[in-house]
């Protein structure tokens, strides 16, 4: 019989453990300017020994020293307001409002004016979600309690586009609401704003929108109901034969369908737009020399507060106080050095990008050359992952627009003349070739291959098809337009 028990063993392993300071340094390196500013402001709140330098005009060394000494001679005094002090400010505010109203309108400042002003000043605009928008309509709909309950359940089942992705029978089973009540609620939901909401497919969505517009018997509605697959493939000749309509009528019907909203819930989606603030600007000065300017506008300039340094130098602190100050001084200096290192790394990477991609900065996307992060890392003298972190989520302003740093790192091909060509350059060439094609006789992928070959760019047809799809360009048969 086997005897079970515990046994002690020793095992030696190697692992990489990042110190907290190193993790903080990497975070600073990776953060774009706006996020970095937020992190620095948080550190300013946490570290009392750090202070922000004034961001006004740059002072000379003497002027700066004088202002620092003056600040040290006049320490801030804490001001304690009581209720009576605030009542004075309130009376002053009321007097100013009344005076302003009398001077600008010649009429007395009435309580109604005050109410309107407060409503205007205190009102906040808040985006309404799709569900909130529909629930408000459901509350006002002429339905009984059971149907209203089904409406609320359906509203919660919609996807972001506004489609009802589950069947009526499944919803009835899941919600334990009678099938016919759910079906009636679906019909009611389809009458809500935005038009097309609560439908189960693109075809149903577009047809519903036309019916709500009173166009349920139009040619566009007939095409959607009876010839949807031909419409998707844009088979105009087949649509002419099936409907008996002329080319002009088919084209007008397609235009009418194209004006409809394929995703009714889209306008209620959360706004994911973000403000892009380039970390670097590259421009050509009046002497045709290329200049690199780092964006320091959003990065606070920091220093260690001289008062605390003087306290430490006097030697009058106990051991605990001294340890506290030394720890925060080290933390503050590390933050300052990390920010400086970040800026230097970004500047050096930008300098090397400018050397390699000079033709891009001079002429545009068509001259973009292949470049890897490993190449820049070897030149700058850092690891490839450092380059990856340094350019992450950062943008560079160029004479041709604002581009992410990663835009300049791209694989490529060797052209027939021996020059390296970036895949972005090839995509740009494909887009230009298709833009100038005859809409009635669009070019095949093989024809595009042949035209690229004339430009000394030799790539396979499947590569052209891949790049065309990445550009969002339809295949040949779907690009064909009929007169």
TrEMBL record:
<dbReference type="GO" id="GO:0001216">
    <property type="term" value="F:DNA-binding transcription activator activity"/>
</dbReference>
<protein>
    <submittedName>
        <fullName>RNA polymerase sigma-54 factor</fullName>
    </submittedName>
</protein>
<keyword id="KW-0238">DNA-binding</keyword>
<dbReference type="GO" id="GO:0003677">
    <property type="term" value="F:DNA binding"/>
</dbReference>
<keyword id="KW-0808">Transferase</keyword>
<keyword id="KW-0240">DNA-directed RNA polymerase</keyword>
<keyword id="KW-0805">Transcription regulation</keyword>
<feature type="domain" description="RNA polymerase sigma factor 54 core-binding">
    <location>
        <begin position="120"/>
        <end position="308"/>
    </location>
</feature>
<keyword id="KW-0548">Nucleotidyltransferase</keyword>
<dbReference type="InterPro" id="IPR038709">
    <property type="entry name" value="RpoN_core-bd_sf"/>
</dbReference>
<feature type="domain" description="RNA polymerase sigma factor 54 DNA-binding">
    <location>
        <begin position="324"/>
        <end position="481"/>
    </location>
</feature>
<dbReference type="GO" id="GO:0016779">
    <property type="term" value="F:nucleotidyltransferase activity"/>
</dbReference>
<dbReference type="GO" id="GO:0006352">
    <property type="term" value="P:DNA-templated transcription initiation"/>
</dbReference>
<comment type="similarity">
    <text>Belongs to the sigma-54 factor family.</text>
</comment>
<dbReference type="InterPro" id="IPR007634">
    <property type="entry name" value="RNA_pol_sigma_54_DNA-bd"/>
</dbReference>
<dbReference type="Pfam" id="PF04963">
    <property type="entry name" value="Sigma54_CBD"/>
</dbReference>
<keyword id="KW-0804">Transcription</keyword>
<dbReference type="InterPro" id="IPR007046">
    <property type="entry name" value="RNA_pol_sigma_54_core-bd"/>
</dbReference>
<dbReference type="Pfam" id="PF00309">
    <property type="entry name" value="Sigma54_AID"/>
</dbReference>
<dbReference type="Pfam" id="PF04552">
    <property type="entry name" value="Sigma54_DBD"/>
</dbReference>
<keyword id="KW-0731">Sigma factor</keyword>
<dbReference type="InterPro" id="IPR000394">
    <property type="entry name" value="RNA_pol_sigma_54"/>
</dbReference>
<dbReference type="GO" id="GO:0016987">
    <property type="term" value="F:sigma factor activity"/>
</dbReference>
<dbReference type="GO" id="GO:0000428">
    <property type="term" value="C:DNA-directed RNA polymerase complex"/>
</dbReference>
